[in-house]
Structures are given as C-alpha cells and as structure tokens.
Amino acid sequence: MPRADVFEFYRRLAEADPAPQTELAYTNPYTLLVAVALSAQATDIGVNKATRKLFAEVDNPAAMVALGLDALKDHIRTIGLFNTKAKNVIALSERLLALHGGEVPADREALEQLPGVGRKTANVVLNVAFGHETIAVDTHIFRVGNRTGLAIGKDVVAVERRLEAVTPAPFRAHAHHWLILHGRYICKARTPLCWRCPVADLCRYKPKTPAPPAPAAEPSPLN
Q: For this structure, is 120 an active site residue?
C-alpha cells in the first residue's frame, strides 16, 4: 500500500474513533496482564464476565496466590482452556512476587519470561498499561494487515514488523486498537462488511462484499 494511502487509512480510522480503548475490563497493570493472558482463544466479553467478580476480590499477585488454584478455576471455568490458564496465572503471580516486587515490569523481555505470556500479551500490556507504541498482532490484525495490503506477512511477527515500519508516527500509540476493532467489527473473517468500511477504496481486497438487499416495504394498511 502506498505511503500516502497508509496515512489516509489510519487518518480515517482515527477520525471515526479518536480515543480507542481495549474492550477488556481491568483496574491496573496486573489485572490487565491477567485479563490478556486469559483472553487467548476467548472473547473479551467472555473474559470480562468471568473476571468481574474475580477482580473485585483480587487485584494484585499476592492476593491471587492467596486465592489459590482451585478458587481461581472456579472464577474462570467459563473460559476456554481454564485449567491451563489458571495454572499460568498463579505461576506468573508467584514470579512477579519473586522477581519484580509484585509489580508488572514495563519490559517485553521480562514480560515474556512470565508463564503464559507470549509476545502478543506482552505487547498489549506494554501499549495499554505503559503507553508503549507496540502493536500486538492477533488473528484480527493479521487478517486486516494481509487482506487490505496494509502489512503483508506470512506470520504474526512479520506482520507486526511491517506495521511498525509503515505506521506513521501520529498513529503509533493507538494503531493496535484501531486495527483490532476494525477487524472485529468491520473486516470480519468470513464476510467483511465492505459497504460499511471507511477505508474500502484503499483496500486491495476483492471482490468487495456488497450491501445486503434492503428489506421489502410493508404494504400500507390503507391499501
């Protein structure tokens, strides 16, 4: 995608949503870290439903360790892979206490050394909690990057690096949120809503999905 089109792509997304936010509910960097770790292969809505009571009771690593594995499982059992995720959350909480004084580190390498925390989770935490200009590439952003031509890559790391290279400075802080929300609500996997897309004319995807037919008008009761 030409550089001018990339700028215009982001400009339109920014105009439509000037201050995008994560849809995961959290209260501090620790609860954000836990929420993102739990969100793998799960929806934000499902994670928020499971963590509403959990985060009211637990908002720091010491409290999570004190809660214990079995009680944590009870809180998150509606989330996919909850057994493994619960073990990771307890383990990462213990690691935070042992190595970081109970604080979430603002460093990718340190975050990725925590159990259950990969590059995507680390990038989300760095961006949302600490304001770093990171772009966490999930399935939505991977799809948007490749489908539109904004950032073509064979894997998530390649797409991330391409996005970092082409995203103009004014849009770096919020690029992650604009792209993930665009993929979640407009550029959907099976049937993208091209007729509603603000950047359809900049996108390389073809054929564009047409608008659904308008519903037939109901006959007038006077007829």
A: yes
Q: Catalytic residue at 59? A: no
Residue-wise pLDDT tens digits, 69-87: 999 999 999 998 999 999 9
- What whole-number distance in Å separates Cα of residue 1 and Cα of residue 215? 37
pLDDT tens for each residue of 112-125 = 999 999 999 999 99
Cut 0.85: pTM above it:
yes
9-148-135-183 Cα dihedral, nearest 10 degrees: 100
Q: Looking at the chain, how many residues does it have?
A: 223
Distance separating alpha carbons of residues 220 and 189, to the nearest angstrom = 39
Of the residues 138, 155, 201, 206, only one is catalytic, namely 138
Catalytic residue among 74, 120, 154, 208: 120
- Residue 171 per-residue DSSP state: G
Query: Residue 208's closest CA among 183, 191, 189, 184?
Result: 191
- Tokens 């290279």 label which residue? 165
